[in-house]
## 1
Amino acid sequence: MKKWAMSLIVTMVAAWFGGLICSAEAGMTARQIMEMVDARDDGDNMTADQEMILIDKNGHKRIRRMKAFSKDKGKDTLKLMFFMEPADVRGTGFLTYDYYLGERDDDQWLYLPELKKVKRIASSDKSSAFMGSDFSYADMTKRVVAEWNYKLLKTMDIGGKSCWLIEATPVNDEVEDRYGYEKSVLFVRQDIFMVVRGVNWCKEGGEIKYLENVTIEQIDGVWVSTQTKAKTTRNGRVMHQTIFNQRNTRFGQDIKEEFFSTRQLEKGL
């Protein structure tokens, strides 16, 4: 067979398979897309250095540095974070048991060294700001897919990558109160099923929160956001901003399940 003919056949087959993939993606419901987002590999036994830059409406900055750990326990995820700098937050620890199913609320504890006390975060407090940032305590866990209703709005390119825009609304008042959001619009990258942007309409205060995974890297085969920016606006004005950087991300580390405990919170690193 002549080379040009073989090349034509290969091109036609590739186009045919590509068409099948596009057709399959085009036929997915918003709920199915979010199930794929939830099922994507996010790594296990992770350690990382993190930095949180808090910027007020006048442009004044505060920088906090942390050490983070996470481990899967079945479908649940255990997370532990220690604040290392500056001195006024050093020793503060944050522990989360992120449950895969929505049958029980995620458990969260905050250790405050000046009080030498572990405080359990109540469900009624999870919509409040985490350590003065634009992230709430609820934002620090994965959303349970079944707790939201979804609607596929459209597709658009973000940074040269095709994304689905999906509207998410809480299934009931309890979920709305926990997150503090009436509605979210999520931008899901089609090639890796990862949320790269989010817009959240707050239930109270007329505020809107914007989140964007600015830098995404593949580390040990896992797509990881190494820089996330968030901002809170009211009436179109920026009230506060947070820049969240993650460095030295490593997976497959030797971390014991017993490490993720309130005793370790009190003990520190």
## 2
Amino acid sequence: MLTIIMECRDNEAELAQTLSALVAGAVEGIVRDVIVLDRGSRDGSSKVADAAGCRFLTEWDMKDVVRSARGDWLLLLEPGARPLAGWVDAVVDHVAIEKRPAHFSGSRSHRPPLFSRLRRRPALERGYLVSKRQASATVASGMALAEMAKRGGARRLVAEIVPAWAMKVMRGA
């Protein structure tokens, strides 16, 4: 039903955080596969991905990545982002009745400072759920995941997500 796709570069700890949050989806049987697109990591990102059973790609064409996804829906995430309790049900409900893309609600416990909220937020901060068919129709070979998430028209899911930047704040990075 669902393929998770992330881009990373030296995000070993963040990748581990996100993958641990996705276990509920794997247990429920909705996560079919996870694809990690690496942009030149020199840390243990590949080992984390391998231990979790992810496909770890160092070279790719985005059209081929979308085409090879096992799920009918794609969930694009930033390493370090963590969907919170209830995300599985929210995604299942969405794909059962909706055809358009969606994103998670921002975590009420992890809000950016006021001035940051006034600026445009990164496209993947709240994840991006899109059908494989829609992604296939709009994806270009050199496209990054964030560009795919900028398509607009996304519905807000009732489930929250802790953004990737929150992990860096907690670690003091």
## 3
Amino acid sequence: MLTIHHLRIGRSIFAVWLLEELELDYQLKEYLRNPETMRAPPELKLIHPLGKSPVIEEDGLVLSESGAITSYLLEKYDTNHRFSPPRSDLSAWAEYTQWLHYAEGSVFTPLMLKMIALRSGEPQPLLDGFGDPEIALHFGHISQQLGDNEFILGDRFSGADFGISYMVGMAQALGQLEPYPSLAAYLERNQARPAYQRALERGVE
């Protein structure tokens, strides 16, 4: 059986969400952060050398990185291409792949800097001086891409929406989403999906 190693309060929740959208049978192993440092427990390093989450295990394969996990699961289990275009449509597949990896590849870093600055409880002009314009750049870009569409690539929910939804939710938690009401509505739509609600029940963020 497929196993997912899920760290509470973190982005591995959208890997759990993907499993629920695919309606797969899986085992969830949950880990709690150190309440003082908010870091992952050392037990995760027994699964993967980086000690990060999410990590999935299946048939001897141990796979980390959310984008790679999404690609693997959709390639293996989404044979009807409900959540990603077929590779035969190379242009659509390339655009989808770009948005799949964009969330963690580009958007996460400035949000992490904002989170660090806020947690410090003191002004952080260096962090904010870099991070704030980057947040505005990226969320302006995401908002423009969404436009009047329901989902990030149009009228169909795709694998790219998992990561983008998580970043939009993180921005909301950090008080950065007010200028982007369409993204707040996008997040609300996605979090209302039954599979997302089931993911929360199994592995609350």
## 4
Amino acid sequence: MGLRNARVRFDGAVAVPEAPNRCWLTSLTTAIGPVAREEIGRVMHGPSAWVAVMISHLAERVGRLFRIDQAIYPDHRLLSTSLYTPDRLTAVLAEEVRFADRAVLIRSLNAFSHRDILAQAYKRWPFRVVWIVGDPKRDWCDRRDARRDRVRLAQSGLRHDIHRNGLPEVMLTRCLSLYRSLYIDAYSRFNPDYELEYIQSLLAEGCLEIHTLSDATGIVAVCALHGNDDMLTVPMVGYDRTRPAGDGLYRSIMTVAFEAACAKGVALNLSAGAGRFKAHRGAKPYVEYMIVIDAHLPLWRRTGYSLLAFVLGRAEPHLLRSAA
């Protein structure tokens, strides 16, 4: 339930991926395999890229051999960033393991929000680099690019609407079409491909709110916001890619997200990618980690997570360099 490219069931607040599973949000072998190779192709060239691709293939095979996808994800709503307050994270780490044959994977930890937890002796994987604006009012509002973005949005004539409890099916279908055009068609088929009913359920729960920009023809840009008392994230973005790039729809819809964070007085996690765009708007890069809890598993299963933690740890310095 939830994704068109992965089968996931929920046990309370715990996401339990099952086969088939070809989404990086719920499959570690997909993340370190084909998704890593796509990213290598975008940011690396020459012999170093060939070496990195070979390492990715080897890591994927090791992962499948040691069944690293046989795992659970506490508090995972199938969004790009899982949010944990310090108290909730402490509670999750202290919970008894309910699935004896599965590792417990805690996603989306970074030094901005979880420095104390990361300093402890957990097995952790550096996963990607995310961009965080710690104080949007201080770090974003007065920047030249931010001022230009706000002027562009104000002069665009686009109508901004906020949808908190749900959308008519035709409108949500349009929103998902814009998202898929960007994140599935243009970026990667391994990105989360959401089912309409699942997004409606998140809206009904108050877990998401959807912001749209529209003109006389209908919705032309969309972003979904997910947050808690300390942080706002942007798990979905889309815009009409058939329009000229000069329309600035991406800049406009991201301005909506920045303004929402300012209004709420919280930090803004902009996820990975588009580093230059985000840095020019006050965001700073942070390595995002995943904690692996596997002490209850047999030695041969723990070995797989340990081997890959070692390999990824050696690659960590390259993450920040490639994100710049």
